[in-house]
Amino acid sequence: MQGHIHKRVRICSNGRVSTLWYVVVDVPRHADGKRRQKWHGGYRTKRAAQAIRARLIHELSTGYYVEPSTMRFDEWLWDYWMPVVETRVKPSTVHAYRTTIRNHIAPELGGIPLARLKPQMFNNLYQRLLKSGNMVTGEGLAVSFVRSIHSVIRKSLNDAVDAGLLPRSPAKAVKPPRDRANSMELRYWTPAELKTFLDLIRGHRLEAALHLIAMTGARRGEIAGLRWVDVDLEATRITIRQTLLTVGGEIQVSSPKSSRGRTLDLDEKTAALLRRHLDQQQSRGEAYLNRDGGVGYVFRRKDGGRIDPRDLYAAFRWIVDNSDLPRIRLHDLRHTHASIGLKAGVPIGVVSERLGHSDPGFTLSLYSHIMPGMQKEAADMIARAVHLDDITGSKS
Predict the structure, then answer these.
(1) Which run of H or of E encompasses 5?
(2) Over pLDDT 90: what percentage of the chain?
(3) Other C-beta atoms within 10 Å of 340: how many?
(4) What DSSP state is assigned to residue 44?
(5) Mean pLDDT score of the chain, rounded to an integer?
């Protein structure tokens, strides 16, 4: 059975004639032996239908044919995909996926059957979100946010293919928007600016926490989740084994972003600051230290409970806003740590390990803006090593 093409002509209410082309193929028979056919279409041209017929026949002959599903996109997302995703990713990621689906995907595309999803539908969605996707202000969403929405769509449809509901993902042909203006621009402080910040926080209740973020490049959730059992003051190092996340307003314990722990050596002054911080905690008594079930968190609220990572951000923001320092985010302290380290000659692999990146190549691409100056130094060193002292003269 090679399948056949069926032409349908319809006269619209305005008198115009509409012609669509359909592909009809035989699929495996019913259990009682009755013939079964599946229609695909309609397509605006006969040539397009012929191309689809050739593809469908090939899929039938090789066993890769998938019958068109009547399941809606939102049914797949909520009833089948999310229950599986919840077992594979962190609670914060689950919360982000649910918010994305509820606010930006389901309202526009949820009622469409999986088999009828087309690349242009996603392109149209992204363009609308870029113009007016903010549900509060009506303004456009950031390109990075729209790209994260595309990521959810892409992953969900790839899993629909694996589940046998689609022959291929319609999102594969979609190119998400790109931020052509400074998409990789990073903000960070100079060593002098960082020194000014560290002087400003001296004596602040969260001085040790903010100092530790600046001098290790750790994430705020990793520092919020640090316990004294993870701190070795004699060896002057800490080990990142967990992180605190705020999900739906609740603080939850999770594994680090790279899903593996890492040990970070400390400079002596940072270690001394932690020793002083420990003495201050112990002076408050056992009731304070056992406030959160005796877990032994290094950084706590005033009442002794574990600190919310958002508190670190709020404290940092207030200090910077009330200073003459360039405005950067708390997360940009990581970029500051990396940039200062690389310019000081710290190997890229060591910087990558301190930041908790799984691949040094990612670190290299992220901080390539620092490389030109370092490459000039390397070029001069290599030239000196091979004694290229005088090659300007010419042979007579």
Answers:
(1) strand 4-11
(2) 50
(3) 20
(4) S
(5) 86
What does 211-274 look like in DSSP terms, one character per residue? HHHHHH---HHHHHT-BGGGEETTTTEEEE--EEEEETTEEEEE--TTSS-EEEE--HHHHHHH
| Tokens read off for 57 | 């026949």
Tokens 């020793």 locate to: 275
1.10.443.10, 3.40.50.300, 1.10.220.10, 2.40.110.10: CATH of 191-374: 1.10.443.10
Q: What is the DSSP string of 348-383?
A: HHHHHHHHT-S-HHHHHHHTGGGHHHHHHHHHHHHH
Characterize 98-109 residue by residue with b for buried, 16 or more Cβ atoms within 10 angstroms of its Cβ, and e for exposed.
bebbeebbbeeb
CA distance 27 to 114: 19
pTM of the model: 0.66
The Cα-based distances of 101 to 109, 142, 248, 300 in angstroms read 10, 17, 16, 35
The H-or-E segment that residue 8 falls in is strand 4-11
Cα separation, 223 vs 353, in Å, equals: 16
Q: What is the pLDDT of residue 3?
A: 80
Domain positions in the chain are: 4-62, 73-173, 191-374
Which structure tokens are listed for 340? 């200062």
pLDDT band at 386 (very low <50, low <70, confident <90, very high): confident
Q: Say what the pLDDT of residue 2 is.
A: 67
Confidence band, pLDDT 50/70/90 cuts, at residue 302: confident
Query: For the chain, what is the radius of gyration of the CA atoms?
Result: 29
pLDDT in tens, 136-185: 888 999 898 999 999 999 999 999 988 878 888 999 999 899 865 444 56
Nearest to 223 by CA among 207, 210, 205: 210
**In the structure encoding, which two tokens stand for residue 232, read together?**
């070795």
Tokens of 142: 């950031």
Cα separation, 76 vs 68, whole angstroms: 14
Q: Say which CATH topology domain 73-173 has.
A: DNA polymerase; domain 1 (1.10.150)
